[in-house]
Amino acid sequence: MISFMDATAELRIAEDPSALAEIAAQEVLAVARAAVAAHGRFTVALAGGSTPRATYTRLAQPPLAAQMPWDRTVVFFGDERGVPPDHADSNYGMARAALLSRVPIPLERIFRIPGEGADPEAVAAEYARTLGEVLGVRRGEVPRLDLVLLGLGVDGHTASLFPGSPVLKETFRTVAAVHAAAATIPQRFTLTYPILNAAACVIYLVSGAEKAKVVKAALGDRSSGLPAAMVRPTAGRLLWILDRAAAALLPSRRTS
Length: 256
What we know:
- By secondary structure, this protein is α/β, with parallel strands linked by helices.
- Helix content is 29%, strand content 19%.
- The longest helix is centred in the first third of the chain and has 23 residues, at 17-39.
- It is globular.
């Protein structure tokens, strides 16, 4: 593994997707333990996608499954599609199959986004209210999650923050309903920049040669215009974990 820092982010480069999943799972464990030690619980927003799924599978297996503080873990989701939880494209459904149904997280500490709701704006508003209540913030304050896991699309989107979306300019709401016309399932729900950038730690999980070009662009400056480039925690840690294929176009770095 190669690790290094740039001006705003820590990068770790794994040999392959399997090694990436192992590194990511170890990072989740470390953040979880530190959060529990600091304030008694671990709050996390999970991501969808195949790369995060491999990480969830590792967390559900020995030895990590026995080391995670599941009884102190509170689970949210970074985004969701407009589908019911048993749909093949549900982020919650994927996370439940790979992780949540296989470890002892109390059901009352798992908060899914009800993508099947008939009124998308009401769903988003209710999820924002839930986040605020569970995380104990006053009205108008932005909740601070211990960890947000994110993936990266080939177009530079992350969560359900797509290029050109008006939601990219959101400065107040923490959750928004999104219509992504080009997506297979256009109706989406997403956490927004205010809550993403308030997190104590954000970890990107990215694998595959098809992501190399957008990784290079997203790790540039904010002027790239890519949604993923705009996730920069104001008082937290930003970590990108890549496999070698996804990191192929990055400048060579020394191992630190």
